[in-house]
Amino acid sequence: MKKILLINPPVSIYVNKTAFIPLPLLVLGTCLKKIREEGFDFSHEVVDLDLLLKQGRFSDDSNFYQQACDLILGKKPDVLLFTVHGLNHIVVLNLSEKIKKERPSCLIVVGGVGPTLKANEALKRCANIDVIVKGEGEPALKDLIPAALSNRNFSHVPSVVYRKDGNVVENPRSFLDKDEPIPFPDYSLVRIEDYIMHNKKHPYIHPGFVPIESGRGCPYCCTFCAPAKMWERRVRYRPVSEIMEEMKYLSEKGGNFSFFTQDNLEESFLINFSEALIKEKVGLPWGCYSRLDRLSDKMAGLLSKAGCKMIFTGIETTNRNAQKSIRKVIDSSATFKKLQDFNANGISLIGSFIAGFPDETEDDIDNTMRFAIECATGLRMEQLDQFVAKTDQDKLPAKGANICAIHVLYHMPGTDSFEQERDNLKITEYSLHPDCYGSYLFSYNEFKNDLSLLGSNPYLNHFTEDKARYYCSVLRLFNFLNSRPYYFALLLKMTAQAPLALMKDMVSCLGEQFVLTAKIEEFEAKSRNYVNKHLRFVPEWTVKKGQ
Ligand code: B12
Ligand code: SF4
Fold first, then answer.
1. Phi, psi (deg, nearest 5) at residue 475
2. pLDDT, tens digit, for every residue of 210-268?
3. How far is Cα 339 from Cα 430, in angstroms, rounded to an integer?
């Protein structure tokens, strides 16, 4: 019987060891089951290399490749289906090379957001990959699997890019029909408890975090956004009854915080969903991505009643010109009021901000920094100053109400901003430091000459070397300090400095090279020393993951 393996290459997240349930593979697993039920004879299973690595059963160094290959080849597969998430295409490229040498007849298929956006160029660059599937896997698999198991003629398979007689051929992309359901993941392909148990020890956002698809797509078209290109502004949601069923199923397995993977949940869906959760008394906590600026005033109360505890939101910048340039115009004052309202209803925000726009001035950076501090505490700068002035140092809240970090503007291949900047883009070494990046399987050396069209390298930018060092160092320090925003505000007050000036001072005291490259523990220890010298007391600064 022919054998298909669904493979999850390692993904990384900061220094954390969270092992995510391989949702794309479980969804595709449901399609494979259906194809088998239609009479095609094959077996399939998930090989989760990420979990094996995070559990310590594989090494986090170059030995990994031999261990992973031995496992895969030992199963004598005929077809490998790799999901590529962000940067882990490097692992897929290395593994494919080894596997093709040992088992040339094995068909290697790759899919995911990254490979989708520049599939044609990617296949030309990746000699050991046979097929790239663009977009949703479901419409392609129906025809791809029978072809893969027989004559390997892919001319009629939608959404694929493949090789024929030495040429790369690209078939048009197809979307799942509106009346075809998004499949319920086949959880029988993995032991869910393994992930949940592991992640309670190594949490991301929340111990017991489980990802769930609420639907697909976002209606907006921000220039830097990969999902905007992936979904081409098409939006669909799963039936709320099915989502609730999945939440309950995962909660029975120990998952106690559902996180919806869809890029931006809109108000109309959130209202239906929340009302159903309240009516059914589901009572499980959850979080999602949503544009705060697009939610009306009534939403905070409703979402809170429905169990929402956290919203991940892109606030990006207060600078109107920059907002226009990225096609994401946000009224900052209205958003700030909304954030306060959400906090008052027990919902915290993870706010993401951007710096590094062309023509950005130091004042612009300072404004973004101030706003990110305000959003982290839910207090305007003047209120924050007063609060800090009248509160004993050791009585200051240890954490802010929200987590707010500023990221450098990067250009992911295939996005509109990538196309605009394409000829000037480089990969920034500092963003790929293994401690920030999470796994020693990935290193700057592997990426430096690679535009990473397969994995959609998110670390491409247009900076000169000096600028890259400047932004990466001040932002690494800013994000560290803003994880404890009340102490940060106190520090600003005591040093009587604007945020950017303080960051620059810190960079010069600690040394730019050190800030950019030091291992996380060392970086945090020295940064704490600097802070303590000025504050003259010793707050517990480092935020542990999942706190
Ligand atoms: C959960 C998540 C994570 C988790 C881990 C995910 C995991 N192991 O499953 C964590 C937090 C670790 C993470 C990390 C990162 N992520 Co992430 N993540 C997501 C998120 C929110 C959900 C992914 C998901 O499960 N979706 C649901 C599944 C069902 O959809 P899907 O994966 O797209 O799969 C469908 C198709 O793509 C296709 N498909 C997928 N694989 C395959 C394989 C085959 C063979 C076939 C045929 C089809 C196919 O079929 C599936 C069903 O239709 C997405 C956003 C999103 N909405 O997708 C971002 C997203 C994928 N991440 C992104 C990025 C940039 C990152 C990071 C680089 C961030 C960073 N700077 O560190 C890291 C990189 C991780 C790494 N490789 O080391 C970007 C990717 C952009 C791009 N162009 O590649 C996204 C789109 C977020 C965004 N808004 O930009 N992420
Ligand atoms: S950045 Fe957010 S709002 Fe903009 S297109 Fe992407 S998912 Fe949608």
1. -75, -35
2. 999 999 999 999 999 999 999 999 999 999 999 999 999 999 999 999 999 999 999 99
3. 32
Identify the domain containing residue 13 by its residue range. Answer: 2-169
Centre of ligand 1 from the C-alpha of residue 468, in Å: 26
Is the residue at 116 inside a domain? yes
41 in any annotated domain: yes
Which is nearest to 336 in space by CA: 299, 377, 306, 369?
377
* CA 154 / ligand 1 centre spacing (Å): 26
The predicted-structure confidence for 182-194, as pLDDT tens digits, reads as follows 999 999 999 999 9
Ligand 2 pocket residue status of 228, Cβ below 6 Å: yes
- Which residue has 């502004």 as its token pair? 233
Q: Which of 113, 258, 352 to mutate to test the pocket of ligand 1 (most atoms within 8 A of CB)?
A: 113
- Per the structure, the count of domains in the chain is 1
**In CATH, what number is assigned to the domain containing residue 44?**
3.40.50.280
The verdict on residue 70 lying in a domain is yes
Residue 259, SS3 per DSSP: strand
Establish if 146 belongs to a structural domain: yes
Centre of ligand 2 from the C-alpha of residue 470, in Å: 27
Distance CA 92, CA 339 (A): 40
For residue 240, give the 3-state DSSP assignment. Answer: helix
Tell me the residue type at 479.
N
Residue 264, ligand 2, Cβ within 6 A: yes
